[in-house]
Specification:
This protein has 147 residues and is α/β, with parallel strands linked by helices. 37% of the residues lie in helices and 13% in strands.
Length: 147
């Protein structure tokens, strides 16, 4: 389960904070979200991708799937059956999250249903911390090179 912390990125907000990464939720055009990838939104999506956290398009209508942000977000969250069907066909059923209510006010109710990002698993965090030690980096490079 992931945290209820998320960033609602509309493109009108400023640059991302450099603190702890959060799931980025982009509202669909039907909910006042951006139709295009403006520079501020692109920056939020880049920070999320580098951190390995989820990006979600909140699609309340089929037309939301035609927006540029929908093409780059990892997940689609919706409560509309026709959106679920179309999104599953485009992106794969594993990337579509059927939520009780696909409104901005109800994001906290379903955000924890997303799978835990691989970048935030304990195994990944331990590996990243261990690589801070020169001996571990040397050993890892020897294992990878087969020598």
């Amino acid at each position: 389960m992931i945290s209820t912390r998320y960033l609602l990125a509309t493109g009108a907000d400023g640059p991302p904070d450099r603190g702890r990464p959060r799931t980025v939720v982009v509202p669909g055009v039907s909910q006042g979200g951006p139709e295009d990838l403006c520079p501020a939104l692109v920056e939020h999506l880049i920070v999320a991708e580098r951190a390995g956290v989820h990006t979600v398009i909140l699609a309340g209508a089929v037309t939301d799937l035609d927006s540029d942000p929908a093409k780059v977000c990892r997940y689609v969250a919706t409560d509309e059956p026709d959106v679920i069907q179309l999104a599953a066909g485009r992106y794969g059923a594993e990337r579509v999250l059927q939520v009780p209510s696909a409104t901005i006010d109800d994001i906290a109710d379903w955000i924890t249903e997303l799978p835990r990002p691989q970048a935030l698993t304990a195994r990944r965090r331990i590996r990243r911390a261990a690589r801070q030690f020169p001996a571990v980096r040397w050993l890892y490079s020897r294992i990878r090179s087969g020598g």
